[in-house]
Amino acid sequence: MQTILDTVIWVILALHLLMVIVAAWNAWRGENSVMRLVGLDIASTLTTAVLVIISIIRQNSLFLDVAIVTTALGYLSTVALAKFISDQRVF
What we know:
By secondary structure, this protein is mainly α. The protein has one domain (2-87): Helix Hairpins. Helices cover 88% and strands 0% of the residues. The longest helix has 28 residues, at 2-29. The radius of gyration is 16 Å and the shape is elongated. The chain starts with a helix and ends with a helix.
């Protein structure tokens, strides 16, 4: 049973990494700035999920702390970039 669970977790990690690559491609080659911002936000969220999955695999809570910091920075950067896109100034 443990082997099946390990295999499923590794497959989920691979799928999340693939989705991060697709989101990064959307952020890099998006049609406009809003689509690029959405791609960055999705990539940030998926990176957090990848860090949590790695924490589960390695059984190390340090990756959870890094995931929390990544989530906070992703949120703040999304808000700042959205404000810049809408007003053409940061503050």
